[in-house]
Write a structure and sequence with these properties.
The protein has 475 residues and is an alpha/beta fold. The chain folds into 3 domains: 206 residues, Rossmann fold (3-Layer(aba) Sandwich), CATH 3.40.50; 196 residues, Rossmann fold (3-Layer(aba) Sandwich), CATH 3.40.50; 45 residues. Helix content is 48%, strand content 12%. The chain contains 22 helices and 13 strands. It holds the Pfam family Capsule_synth.
């Protein structure tokens, strides 16, 4: 089969070895990758077209590709891809925040012209992503593949130990996992029946024990102490080089003296009454794949809050808390994903309360009737604590028996009614779910930061991922 590899590998050389395994039975015709690795890869893949990731993000064609004969996209194709357009526009904003709406639309059309042309010329038969496509070029490739019936293959890194779930469509999740989770619902597995790594993972979090998620551990590592000072030092040196220090200093002072996200948040936040009946809704960091595309239309988190607000039982509240890294990575300036008035809008819903950032997560998740999220780790943590979870997106844990998957006011109202009438998750159901995860997943890693969760060798990681992809390509 003729394969496209999209953002496959980087620091993780194991994924290069996976490509070598695939090359034994298939032809890799296109590989989007960082330019630094081209010279290494061309020796083993002399016939592949290599495309630098940064060039792809900026709409620059792969070196040596003649686009002069590419046919311009027409209104019919745009209409057929209309479902993908809002996702792609949001992804363009992530890397081109200075573009106007008209420029984003023009850029989208340019990207679509290029990738349609590459499909016409190279005729791929399968597209392999390491994870859910979440940049504009990736998602256009994904959308075109789905449109033309071309197989798409990808993984979901659960961050439960080093477990990876294979899937062909992120909206459907892992087909094997879904089947196994349903099959295991009526079983009576013991903790001793589940794999040792999942057993240890569960034991560390049983009884309400709170373990800081990997993403937050990495955030704290990057934005505190020596690493934070080094990061700021590099920014300072670069600003001195390009003479941008003075304008940046003026903008920083203006932001601190004027209005900003943090000030708006603190103005509308109120101390929560933990004795009241409430659902806990922690906002997710944006921009990130966990909301776009995995949140579906609810990548607009105001829409999610509004939906829950309209479905909530009488005298219940929604306690909303911002993601702890939102202001660190994006700073406190207003932006496309947190515009001026964002928190004001949330606070105006009659049953919504914005809670202070220093409110303990453990207190909110422990005292709530349910946790509400798109795809956040908070939903899985709730399941581990035998709390109901309501999800609007496509998280890896969406097949868990304690998770209510909703998509509108009616389904949210039904879920909340069930919860208000006493729905309680059971430990047996959770153990069965972990057994299903053990059966349906593989050990492996796709990024450097998740590699630290794994105890397997480089050779084992290569073999596990290669075997799954080989079987999927044959099927």
């Amino acid at each position: 089969m003729r394969l496209f590899l999209v953002q496959w590998g980087g620091e993780e050389k194991e994924l290069f070895d996976v490509a070598k395994e695939l090359q034994k039975s298939h032809e890799i015709v296109y590989w989007m990758q960082s330019r630094e690795h081209f010279s290494l890869l061309r020796k083993d893949f002399p016939n592949a077209v290599f495309h630098d990731v940064r060039d792809a993000l900026n709409g620059i064609p792969a070196s040596g590709v003649d686009t002069s004969n590419f046919v311009k996209v027409d209104s019919n194709l745009l209409k057929r891809l209309l479902w993908a357009e809002s996702f792609i526009m949001g992804m363009i904003t992530k890397h081109h925040s200075d573009f106007t709406e008209a420029q984003k639309l023009e850029f989208y059309h340019e990207l679509l012209n290029y990738w349609k042309g590459m499909f016409d010329v190279l005729k791929p038969e399968a597209i392999i992503f390491p994870m859910t496509p979440h940049t504009a070029p990736d998602f256009i490739i994904y959308a075109l593949a789905r449109l033309h019936g071309i197989k798409t293959l990808m993984f979901y890194a659960t961050e439960v130990s080093d477990r990876l779930l294979f899937m062909e469509d992120f909206t459907a999740g892992s087909a094997l996992f879904e089947r196994t989770a349903k099959e295991y619902q009526g079983k009576s597995f013991a903790l001793s029946d589940i794999p040792p790594d999942l057993h240890a993972y569960y034991r560390a979090r049983a009884g309400g024990n709170y373990v800081t998620p990997l993403s937050l551990r990495l955030y704290k590592k990057d934005f505190k102490g020596k690493n934070f000072l080094l990061k700021k030092g590099r920014v300072l040196i670069e600003s001195l080089r390009d003479l941008s220090l003075f304008p940046k200093a003026i903008r920083y002072i203006s932001r601190q003296l004027g209005s900003n996200l943090k000030k708006e948040y603190e103005r509308v936040s109120v101390e929560p009454d933990l004795t009241a009946k409430f659902v806990y809704l922690p906002l997710q960091y944006q921009p990130e794949a966990t909301t776009n595309p995995l949140g579906g239309i609810f990548m607009d988190q105001i829409r999610m809050v509004k939906t829950v607000s309209e479905a909530l039982p009488k005298d219940w509240f929604i306690y909303v808390k911002e993601h702890p890294s939102q202001w660190g990575r994006q700073t406190t300036k207003f932006n496309f994903f947190r515009c001026k008035g964002y928190y004001d809008t949330l606070a105006k819903f009659p049953n919504v309360k914005i809670v202070p950032m220093n409110t303990k997560t453990e207190a909110l998740s422990g005292g709530c009737q349910a946790v509400v999220t798109n795809t956040g780790t908070a939903g899985w943590e709730a399941a581990l604590r035998l709390k109901p979870t309501i999800t609007f997106g496509y998280p890896w844990y969406m097949f868990c028996p304690s998770v209510f998957r909703v998509s509108d006011v009616a389904s949210a109202k039904q879920a909340l009614t069930n919860i208000s009438r006493g729905f309680k998750p059971t430990e047996q159901a959770l153990i069965n779910f972990l057994a299903a995860l053990g059966h349906s997943s593989i050990h492996g890693y796709l990024e450097a930061h998740t590699k630290q969760l794994s105890k397997i060798t480089k050779e084992e990681a290569t073999r596990n991922i290669s075997e799954v992809l080989r079987e999927a390509l044959i099927a």
